């Protein structure tokens, strides 16, 4: 009788250069370890400061068995609390957004200030010490308008590297001075790791994403030089020239473009960033590659600032001169993953005047739907008894394998 492999044995059974074994995508115990390690013990992006634009605004996000309330307090500070009442543990807010004066538990009306202090708890007696029953705060780092949290008691210190890297890159866009023009959620029928793997390669893009591929340069996502025909060689030469020209021009304007990669398993806070040259008019991820919003972000003066992308282990973000697209996932079950996307524009931009929302969201709405379909067929195929791990392309899927290696290394670091 074959013995059921442990999570660690499944990790060790993966051949280098090959995809993960089927059970890593489907087993409940693996899923629970994944949520615990990658969503409760690492830093995760759970929102943007524009989710809570005014004091009293709250945005509640559920992550596995945990739930957090992102609050903008009276001092205009973004704080995050465990969504657990300090009385008998009821949830204080349901997932979603609201505007409130105080945080009031619906069960027995314990009432908390926006800074988490317990203000009022009836019938607890004169000697009851309110001070030690404030809401539990969660490690929070707002990096250029992106809200990261860590639910661990001790949060990985290397969020500082992400912060140092991203702050000067994001500062000119002033994402804290944006509004959410549109927000979308998809529940994908696949394991969260397949959603991430799909995001870490563009091997599939030419065959799947007609809208997205209009906006970027295909060579950015890998090529096999020895397979290039004459047209391919010419395209590569023009890609290199275009990159060199843009780099010189951006650097002259003080726009940082160098890639930074922190993707190896010794790093807890995985990320990658780079200012990518865009195709066509080079302005924005829109159907015509021109800006979708005429009121640019922050103090932008030029429209062709490229696409400053930021990958994390659970999300992907694109910041352009006129708008930003922020996407992150939350695993719901071994075969279901929530993908949430927010499109941000200048807080002063007016819909119908400065931007058309359909134009703004068109590329990523199509791309997300196409990716969801790919993840579904991928997940389903990996659960077929006929599945066996297949080889990654060395040229186009190096970041997918890098993600699989990081996944393994981080679980080992957490003694799985
Ligand atoms: S559980 Fe919140 S007031 Fe009782
Ligand atoms: Fe895709």
TrEMBL record:
Coiled coil: none annotated. GO terms for molecular function: dioxygenase activity. Keywords: 2Fe-2S, Dioxygenase, Iron, Iron-sulfur, Metal-binding, Oxidoreductase. InterPro entries: Rieske_2Fe-2S (IPR017941), Rieske_2Fe-2S_sf (IPR036922), Ring_hydroxy_dOase_asu_C_dom (IPR015879), Rng_hydr_dOase-A (IPR001663). It comes from the Bacteria. Its cofactor is Fe cation. Residues 43-149 form the Rieske domain. SUPFAM superfamilies: Bet v1-like, ISP domain. CDD domains: RHO_alpha_C_GbcA-like, Rieske_RO_Alpha_N. Belongs to the bacterial ring-hydroxylating dioxygenase alpha subunit family. This is Aromatic ring-hydroxylating dioxygenase subunit alpha.
